[in-house]
Amino acid sequence: xxxxxxxxxxxxxxxxxxxxxxxxxxxxxxxxxxxxxxxxxxxxxxxxxxxxxxxxxxxxxxxxxxxxxxxxxxxxxxxxxxxxxxxxxxxxxxxxxxxxxxxxxxxxxxxxxxxxxxxxxxxxxxxxxxxxxxxxxxxxxxxxxxxxxxxxxxxxxxxxxxxxxxxxxxxxxxxxxxxxxxxxxxxxxxxxxxxxxxxxxxxxxxxxxxxxxxxxxxxxxxxxxxxxxxxxxxxxxxxxxxxxxxxxxxxxxxxxxxxxxxxxxxxxxxxxxxxxxxxxxxxxxxxxxxxxxxxxxxxxxxxxxxxxxxxxxxxxxxxxxxx
Amino acid sequence: xxxxxxxxxxxxxxxxxxxxxxxxxxxxxxxxxxxxxxxxxxxxxxxxxxxxxxxxxxxxxxxxxxxxxxxxxxxxxxxxxxxxxxxxxxxxxxxxxxxxxxxxxxxxxxxxxxxxxxxxxxxxxxxxxxxxxxxxxxxxxxxxxxxxxxxxxxxxxxxxxxxxxxxxxxxxxxxxxxxxxxxxxxxxxxxxxxxxxxxxxxxxxxxxxxxxxxxxxxxxxxxxxxxxxxxxxxxxxxxxxxxxxxxxxxxxxxxxxxxxxxxxxxxxxxxx
Lengths: 323, 272
Prior knowledge:
The complex is a heterodimer of chains A (323) and B (272).
Chain A: H1 5-27, E1 34-38, H2 48-53, E2 58-60, H3 65-77, E3 81-87, H4 88-93, H5 96-105, E4 110-115, H6 133-138, E5 144-146, H7 151-162, E6 168-171, E7 194-197, E8 202-206, H8 210-223, E9 228-232, E10 235-237, H9 241-250, E11 254-261, H10 266-274, E12 283-288, H11 298-304, H12 309-322
Parallel strand pairs in A: 1-2, 1-3, 3-4, 4-6, 5-6, 8-9, 8-11, 11-12
Antiparallel strand pairs in A: 5-10, 7-9
Chain B: H1 3-24, H2 30-47, E1 62-65, H3 75-80, H4 86-89, H5 121-134, E2 141-146, H6 153-164, E3 170-176, E4 179-180, E5 183-184, H7 185-188, H8 194-200, E6 204-209, H9 213-221, E7 229-234, H10 257-271
Helix pairs in contact in B: 1-2, 1-10, 2-9, 5-6
């Protein structure tokens, strides 16, 4: 799956869920020991083609996420490379203790994939939103937590994850017609952030769907004479502390932007790094509130919650002037 | 191993359970360990295929202790089987030991999984049994589930998937001692008709006296064609120590010197 402006547009139309299924299908020939599980959501995870092409590598656990994670662990123990997916709250929270015991405590090689995390499930409402998943997953020892910026990065991540030995939580945000961040091939490494552009006044650190909004916010800020760096911190755990240390030395204000509750996500992870240093580097967290929000279309909610580029740029501007 | 040898295996296990529990100086899960002892003696004395000199042998049968608090019925079986040494065994519940109150995965010690949270092990066992099918391996997977543990809904999720996948290489043994932390199962959450429940979930189900070595051996020998197997082992909590039998105070408790001495002598009297 080569990243070109054409494929990037095709994938963007499909959205991260559909592209997850395509990426799994694409890696299948390279991984004899691949096993893919779903909890009655194969068709919602873009896995229809995979299960038709590789029925012997697919297990539907039924609507039973806890058991799915346990079974995935048993398969991983016997050497299978397992990807198990469901909607974010059903895998990250309903099965969180199975993830804790099997992926965390026993370090079994399972990739737990949350499709439709954040608020991308739109009118399906808070029951289906992933607003606490990063907080829960990153607090479990041994779990790597990654949230790709766009559909091309979903492709990069699935490939990297299949070659990565160890448990991982993959958080897919955004929906169909997902904005494009990458339309050319680039270097992707789990645990290593990507600087998308350099600026001199402020650094925006984002992941998932908020990388695109941050790029756009930086453009809006630039029109007003504010120069912003944008960093794609796709891996929330382990955090790229080398990059953060560099930013601290630079001393510019930092703004973290994420489609997750303000409690326990990327903003918290960055704060945990910054606060013991006492460096005086200012940090603003832009995130969802600690609340179950009023539901609507995805774009409506992003705007309503101040996570669209326009709102993000305004928040950053007032933060900078307040200094 | 002959039947008398299996009885001796179980007797030695009970003696070691009492000894290590007493010497730990702490409260331990004695009742449920003594109820599962005969099942474990048959498993490790006759049924399971393993190499005590090489616990990681790739073709070994897999045993998962889903009722993770049952370690005192597990470590003594590993000791008796020659998989762990007495020296290791005696570290039970010492600071920093590998042998604590719930199993911690350690393939060199024959401990296949970390457990302690109920309703997890059976799911992992389903995954392992299915992996064996996929890899065309001939080992068998066994898991011991507590009857109280079946309160956990995930046990039934696993039960559904195991029969759906026709895992005839998987055996779940239910230690049906009819008591749990807060008392009798019938008072806490009714779990009667255990065999009918598993049968309804599509398992080949066998009910046995879980303290009768002959019945246990016969049950393990049954090989269903296309179903997972559930052995519902009717047991007595605290079995083998008269003052503990059926007394749920011994679910998790500490042995005093006099308790310990009484327990050991009554155990010895039972075979004289």
